[in-house]
Amino acid sequence: DAGVIQSPRHEVTEMGQEVTLRCKPISGHNSLFWYRQTMMRGLELLIYFNNNVPIDDSGMPEDRFSAKMPNASFSTLKIQPSEPRDSAVYFCASSPGTGGTFGSGTRLTVV
Amino acid sequence: SQQGEEDPQALSIQEGENATMNCSYKTSINNLQWYRQNSGRGLVHLILIRSNEREKHSGRLRVTLDTSKKSSSLLITASRAADTASYFCATDAASGTYKYIFGTGTRLKVLA
Question: Looking at CA atoms only, how far is residue B49 from chain A in angstroms?
């Protein structure tokens, strides 16, 4: 099992550009989570899905953020337009119900 | 929110010593988990303890849970330099939503 796969590993973009982060969860895991990690705010839960359905998106900071899970093997987190304060490491995690496996993260830098 | 708070924020010990980290949370939980994060890397799941359990062991790790005090501790025995990392606790709501909220973490440094 390759674990949770995130892409890209690093993304540098200019302010105002659209950014799309991708995640492939572990097969058979029915829950998927997107987290953001910064020095100032720590690990923040942005949104989580259960059986491909968004259950709680209360952590999504603004309307500029959106997430989709079109099928059980793929999810995206989109920021449009991006701003410098969005710079962070974004983690995707999947879980079969208890415990969780994290991807390696996408380090996003918005300049 | 029911964010966990780890204590201490940073801990520096000598190799071979034991390291104890604490986590406090605010509301009832189904279970509590501990994760490790090496610098610049993703989080690695260490151990899960359910609300009806009081203690759990895994190798050199020992986790306790006191639901009456809403607190948990992680003990790493005979620490090694490779244990240097940040350690986080994560709690879920008792409603079983699998929505895990992470604490602020303890940065552990084990000196060789």
Answer: 10
Angle at B7 between CA B3 and CA B13, to 5 degrees: 145
Q: Tell me if A93 and B43 make a contact (CB, 8 A cut-off).
A: yes
User: How far does the CA of residue A36 sit from the closest CA of chain B (Å)?
Assistant: 11
Query: What is the rounded end-to-end Cα distance, in angstroms, of chain B?
Result: 38
- A74 bridge partner residues: A71
A38, A20, A35: which is closest to A74 by C-alpha?
A20
- Structure tokens that stand for A53 in this block: 């359905």
Instruction: List, for residues B31-73, the tens digit of each pLDDT value.
Output: 899 999 998 888 999 999 999 999 999 999 999 999 999 999 9
Distance CA B88, CA B86 (A): 7
Chain A residue numbers touching B97 (CB-CB < 8 A):
55-56
